[in-house]
Amino acid sequence: MTLRRILAFLVLAFSATSPFAASPSRPNIIFLLADDLGYGDIGAFGQTKIRTPTLDRLAADGMRLTRHYAGHNVCAPSRCVLMTGKHPGHAYIRNNRGGIGIADGPAEGQEPVPAAELKLPITLKKLGYTIGGFGKWGLGAVGGSGDPQKHGFDRFFGFNDQAHAHNHYTHYLWDNDRKVTLNNPEFNVHDQALLKGDARKPEFYQKWTGRDYAPDLIAERARQFLRENRDKQFFLYYPTTVPHLAYQVPEDSLAEYLGKFPEPSTATGNYLPHRAPRAAYAAMITRMDRDIGKLLALVDEFGLRDNTIVIFTSDNGGTGPGLEFFNSVGALRGRKGGYYEGGFREPCIVRWPGKIEPGSMSDRVTGFEDWLPTLLELVDAASETPKEIDGISFAPTLRGQTQPERPFLYRESPAGGGQQAVRVGNWKGIRPNLNDSTSLQLFDLANDPKEERDVAAQYPEIVARLSRILREQHVKSDVFPLRGIDGDVPAPAPKKKAKKA
Length: 501
What we know:
The protein is α/β, with parallel strands linked by helices. It has 2 domains: 26-398, Alkaline Phosphatase, subunit A, CATH 3.40.720.10; 409-486, Arylsulfatase, C-terminal domain, CATH 3.30.1120. It has helices at residues 3-13, 53-61, 75-84, 119-126, 202-206, 214-229, 251-254, 277-301, 341-344, 371-378, 395-398, 460-473, 483-486; strands at 28-34, 63-69, 130-136, 155-159, 172-175, 178-181, 234-239, 308-314, 345-351, 360-362, 366-367, 409-413, 419-424, 427-431, 441-444. Strands 1, 2, 3, 4, 5, 6, 7, 8, 9, 10 and 11 form an 11-stranded mixed beta sheet that branches. It has a 4-stranded antiparallel beta sheet with strand order 12-13-14-15, covered by helices on one side. Helix 6 runs parallel beside helix 8 (277-301). The chain is globular and about 60 Å long. The N and C termini lie far apart (63 Å).
């Protein structure tokens, strides 16, 4: 073989189409975020009725974080904590607040974050990462200050608004700033008058089932992003809408579980009912697991496994009619919307071959605010960590090194009369309703993981210590005030609803 042919062969072997292409200097990051998944909803965290083979393999290949906390007990503020590195007492978004559009724009969107607020994608963009988001956004309307493209994202595909995301057979999705029409009927998934009928009859449910299942389309666009950017440093953020209500899933997935479980009433609050809600919930999770498997298979196909950090977790605790049946929160108390452990303690798995020991586990307390400094340290850019954040890097923990425990983990919400929670070591303090009482409930999680015994009266010094943290960590917000602490603060006037696009 001539020298010219040898050189041509080497160029071809290491071209962009080769699975052996040279890797970028920094690792890729894939952040997989489920929606309303409970602590015990996957096999690696104790689930026995729902199949999650991909996530179970991911856990076997990486580290399970058993005391990992979402940023909040509901969607939008949890995502804000993740993206800003600030806990809910300092972050801009502290509760869900929807129905907010922009002038001459779409009449949808959550309360928007200010420009340049989301330091995680912005900092990674500065480091040369190509950034894509696929799924549910929830941090501001398209075209406004909270638009993902104004916070470092090169590409976003999915639902902008959280209420819109409650219909998995929606009639449109967003592709950056462009609406993509789907082949589905147009209806309001919350319109109970429209949805009257016997939901146990397949023909009733089929009226509200289209051809385009949004989670499938979102998963395919995430895979497309991976294909197109496999030779770059990329951050792939995949906040799926599964398994959030309404329970909707294609029939081929439902068939795996249909008839396997006793089914309760089809009532699901203000959401579209399903004739077999437990089977549908299980099928949604298994289908999500399958889609994650397809994405990770591409990582292997392109030779990126060793140079890609993969993270899986959920945005807040579980909810819905299958919660007790599936033991969705494991041995924990509470559910989505509360600050007992089941409301925001989540399964978490991290894989990075050669850097994180396979089959390992850590019970160190970590939270969503910690991901910003942790990821920056893992990609050798710790010096780029923003100054005014609450996150603490747990990169040493992921590497198997000893690390001091977190000094405290703080959460708050203006919902339900105002809520606060703080964890210090194994002590957990909760104020579940600031309007009713400012007294602190105290639990010893080491001896009472279900938070069944309030021991505040026995440990006044611990109560005083935790109460001081609760006072110090709350910074007043005019948009999301804690009325039990900030006084009689009037609720902010609703913003003028924008015209429909």
